[in-house]
């Protein structure tokens, strides 16, 4: 490879290598990844990378790009390499130890914001929990977009809480988001109006079949939900009655494909409230992704 060849051509080749080796879904995505990695190596924004395509790559940036490309070809998540991921219009710092926030989780945030707006306490302060907060994606997005919300976010993994802490600081939400270490709702003493969670829900058997980029790099505790994938929902449901207020509350849970009916049953059985109303929300792929149970509003 001669150094004079244009950047555009060399990034196309890098895209082809990415496409051949891992789950970059299509040519456009592979090219995008190559451009983003070169942007990280050179300090250029993506549009500047594209504009520089006819010239050879910068000689000082290319070795750094090669090193980043090697990491990506070794199945490290793109978001870990770039050190960040966009979620619900905000930038979250991410890296080893926390799950990369997924687009489908925006469905949960959207539904949560509606529930907060419609909750009888929305004129005052709605007390919201996010169990298993990871990077803080749900808790911090909700706090940023609902000024009526005070959010208590927990995680059992110390590494994840560190990422959530960095993001909370960067987003300037230290006064309205409390971070706590522990099992689901167990560390919380405040009565709760709304409980949110995106718990690990992949059954153990399916975990081994996941793409390497998830299986090797992301924390297993963030992904695997025990033998049936439903164990974390049983754990959370058992804790709900002692933490929720009696009169008006909501529980919104992200679920895996095909799990909505099971999770609905688990939550309703734990609550024992004949006045509960259930709604499910579909993600952009049409999958029933969020189970919402409301009582009293
Ligand atoms: C699927 S990830 C979700 C992360 C983040 N909420 C999001 O949506 O991107 C699940 C998170 O739950 C945490 N977790 C797993 N078991 C837990 C438990 N028993 N108590 C608290 N957090 C738990 C994991 O460490 C991980 O951060």
Brief characterization of the structure:
This protein is of the alpha/beta class and 297 residues long. The protein is built from 13 helices and nine strands.
What does this structure look like?
By secondary structure, this protein is α/β, with parallel strands linked by helices. It has 2 domains: 7-74; 85-295, Rossmann fold. The protein has 13 helices and 9 strands. It has helices at residues 7-21, 27-42, 46-51, 62-73, 78-82, 105-118, 137-145, 158-170, 204-207, 212-215, 220-223, 231-243, 260-271, and strands at residues 84-87, 90-93, 126-131, 149-155, 177-181, 194-197, 249-254, 277-282, 288-295. The strands form 2 sheets. The chain has a 7-stranded mixed sheet, sandwiched between helices. Strand 1 and strand 2 form a beta hairpin. Helix 1 packs across helix 2 (27-42) and helix 2 (27-42) packs across helix 4 (62-73). The protein starts with 6 loop residues before the first helix and ends with a strand. The model has no long low-confidence stretch (mean pLDDT 95).
Write the layout of secondary structure elements.
Blueprint: H1 7-21, H2 27-42, H3 46-51, H4 62-73, H5 78-82, E1 84-87, E2 90-93, H6 105-118, E3 126-131, H7 137-145, E4 149-155, H8 158-170, E5 177-181, E6 194-197, H9 204-207, H10 212-215, H11 220-223, H12 231-243, E7 249-254, H13 260-271, E8 277-282, E9 288-295
Parallel strand pairs: 3-4, 3-6, 4-5, 6-7
Antiparallel strand pairs: 1-2, 7-9, 8-9
The structure holds S-adenosylmethionine.
S-adenosylmethionine is lined by residues 99, 101, 105, 131-135, 137-138, 154-157, 160, 183-184, 198-200, 221-222, 232.
């Amino acid at each position: 490879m001669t150094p004079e060849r244009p950047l555009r051509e060399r990034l196309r080749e890098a895209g082809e290598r990415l496409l051949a080796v891992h789950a970059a879904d299509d040519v456009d995505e592979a090219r995008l990844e190559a451009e983003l990695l070169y942007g990280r190596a050179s300090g250029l924004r993506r549009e500047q990378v594209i504009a520089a395509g006819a010239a050879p790559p910068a000689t000082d940036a290319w070795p750094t790009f090669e090193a980043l490309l090697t990491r990506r070809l070794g199945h490290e998540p793109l978001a870990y390499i770039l050190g960040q991921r966009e979620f619900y219009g905000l930038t979250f710092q991410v890296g080893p130890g926390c799950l990369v926030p997924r687009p489908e989780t925006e469905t949960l945030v959207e539904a949560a914001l509606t529930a907060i707006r419609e909750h009888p306490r929305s004129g005052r302060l709605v007390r919201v929990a996010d169990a298993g907060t990871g990077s803080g994606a749900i808790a911090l997005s909700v706090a940023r977009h609902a000024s009526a919300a005070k959010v208590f976010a927990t995680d059992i993994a110390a590494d994840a809480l560190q990422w959530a802490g960095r993001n909370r600081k960067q987003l300037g939400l230290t006064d309205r988001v409390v971070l706590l270490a522990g099992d689901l709702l167990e560390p919380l003493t405040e009565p709760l109006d709304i409980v949110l969670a995106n718990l690990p829900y992949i059954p153990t058997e399916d975990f081994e079949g996941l793409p390497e980029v998830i299986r090797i790099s992301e924390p297993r505790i963030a992904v695997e939900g025990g033998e049936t994938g439903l164990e974390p929902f049983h754990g959370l449901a058992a804790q709900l009655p002692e933490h929720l207020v009696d009169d008006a509350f909501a529980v919104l849970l992200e679920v895996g494909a095909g799990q909505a009916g099971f999770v609905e049953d688990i939550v309703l059985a734990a609550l024992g409230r004949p006045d509960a109303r259930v709604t499910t929300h579909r993600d952009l792929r049409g999958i029933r992704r969020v189970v919402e149970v409301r009582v009293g509003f």
